[in-house]
Design brief:
254 residues, alpha/beta, Nucleotidyltransferase, domain 5, five-stranded mixed beta sheet, 40% helix, globular
Length: 254
């Protein structure tokens, strides 16, 4: 079986695949001070709890946007899975044409998302990943990654209001009943929620204008469903988009 890992700034999303079928899915915190043994024991427990064994894994592929943790994770894979993981990095076969001016700048998670979005939904397609940062990417109808844009994630932006101001409190991100809030909390929730929905709608509109077509939109990440319900511009929500892209990249390199 194939073990896929998407290492983000906040969470590590993982999935175990048997061919194209997902067997298990786990999500753990990206703890930058963990040792390889701590990660190894954590994943051993998750596998055992899920009724599978680390010995069932015959391949590991990793997307990481946290370079400082890669050495630790690589040693964990070696010591606990007895395998050398494949990292999505320049030179790897993806099956897509990356039209970035400097392809080495492109995050490995965005590459996996591009592969998955184009394979699963065809092109042209706009894919949005609502993570610590919200990233927009665009694939054309010929399988080329054209580029995109990056914004602060909605949770990161809301936390910045609490830490970067003297009087505004930290607040729970929720969909307020009204845009016009009558308390400071309601004002914060309204501005963040509806403001971010507006950001998504406008960027999708501008991207479609530049493409010259009504490209479909697929979203992934923790806030994808909430944004899809309110914005009306997201056609598909796929929480496994990145991990499925990693599986496809693994197959294209083996």
């Amino acid at each position: 079986m194939l073990f896929t890992m998407d290492i983000g700034n906040t969470n590590i999303k993982t999935a175990l695949f048997d061919g194209p079928s997902m067997v298990k899915y786990w999500r753990v915190s990206t703890n930058k001070i963990y040792t390889s043994d701590e990660f190894g024991i954590l994943f051993e427990h998750l596998f055992t709890h899920g009724g599978v064994s680390v010995d069932d894994v015959d391949g590991i592929i990793i997307s990481s946007v946290v370079p400082t943790i890669n050495f630790t994770i690589e040693h964990m894979c070696s010591n606990y899975f007895h395998l050398t993981p494949m990292f999505v990095a320049p030179g790897i076969k993806t099956g897509i044409n990356i039209k970035y001016e400097n392809p080495r700048e492109l995050g490995s998670d965005r590459i996996a998302n591009a592969v998955s979005a184009y394979t699963e939904y065809g092109g042209p397609v706009i894919f949005i990943d609502f993570g610590t940062a919200t990233t927009f990417g665009v694939m054309d109808g010929q399988g080329s990654f054209l580029g995109g844009c990056i914004c602060p994630g909605i949770k990161l932006a809301s936390e910045a209001l609490g830490t970067g101001t003297a009087k505004l409190p930290r607040f729970e991100l929720a969909r307020p009943e009204h845009v016009i809030g009558r308390t400071t909390l309601a004002n914060l929730q309204s501005g963040m929620y509806y403001g971010y929905v507006g950001l998504v709608i406008h960027l999708v509109k501008k991207i479609r204008q530049e493409l010259g077509c009504q490209a479909q939109v697929v979203a992934t990440g923790g806030m994808a469903q909430m944004m899809a319900e309110e914005s009306g511009v997201i056609d598909h929500v796929d929480g496994l988009l990145t991990l499925k892209g990693l599986r496809l990249i693994w197959e294209r390199n083996h």
